[in-house]
Amino acid sequence: MTMPIQSLIASGGKVWLDSIDPDEVARNRVWGITGATSNPIIVTDLVETGRLDKDLERFFREGLDDYETAWRTTDVLVSQAQEAFLHVWEATRGDDGYVSFELDPLLEDSEPRVSAGGRPPDRLDAEQRTQHYIDLGKRWSEGRRNRMIKVPATPSGLAALEELAAAGVTVNVTLTFTPRQYVAARDALWRGARRRRSLDAFKSVYSIFVSRVDVYTDKHVPDLSPPAQGQVGIANAKRIWRMNQEFWADKGLPLKQEIVFASTGVKKPDDPPWKYVEAFAGSDIETNPPATNAKVQASGRTFPRAVDRPLPDDVSAEIDAKVDMVRLEAVLMAEGLKKFADPQEALLDLIARKRRES
Fold first, then answer.
1. How far from 266 is each of 209, 212, 234, CA to CA, in Å?
2. Which of 32, 132, 291, 351 is most enclosed, with most CB atoms within 10 A?
């Protein structure tokens, strides 16, 4: 009997885990999950459990400050997850089996309060932020075969993409909400890729956040009709998916350049847990929180291809008429950057506390 997640994969897509918790990675691998993503929230939660205390003590003995300790700890966790999926990466010759490593979200913090070594925080201009993304991306990808570097679709992040791609870094463009961001990211990575000696290992993915869009419209576009409200995230992500399919169709690349359908956990209790998972079945990558994958697997449902199934024309027309994508992007980017910066600061606070207690 085909299990739900197996049916998702059989429909033509990949399923990843939005966690690098070793227990969740082990459980999800049994279900057929072939990759994972990480972020500061996930890392902070794992450090809080005490599982990394021995690593922390080693870093403290080496004289690392809290900032460097945080990133070395993240590297340990991501590397462990990479090892779990390395066989997939090898079997697919680099087309799957990745684990994403998020670069420093404090680079975009509008009110920085910490920096490396406890020095007064730097207020970086846009060019300095871009150079930091390039330097950090090269550092944390070097020698790590099945690691993707997550770079946000901010102005400074987008400006770093061409150089990262040219340097051979495999990139996951995160915090992408709109077609404008996607096109800017895609074009920058393609420019960089064409500066390489070979395109054989070029792989890029674009994480399109879904449920947060519906949270936004529920609050900021309350006059959407019932058939349209709660469907904007799906409509937007499917539109970007189609754009991506069309752009890469004639490039003749050996590896797929894919959309990652992210933020797929439902936010409303009345929505079925598989609402977004079901909508994108059939192509590219879904990265789901552990609870979402568990509920999908327990559902007993079969998920046929649906990613190219459009919304009704009248619903699509209403969404286009009523949703201001410029405003949506501005609001969700500000919220998204804060949601990653706050946990990174919390991680630094946690490490400082564990240092005092060690």
1. 12, 9, 12
2. 351
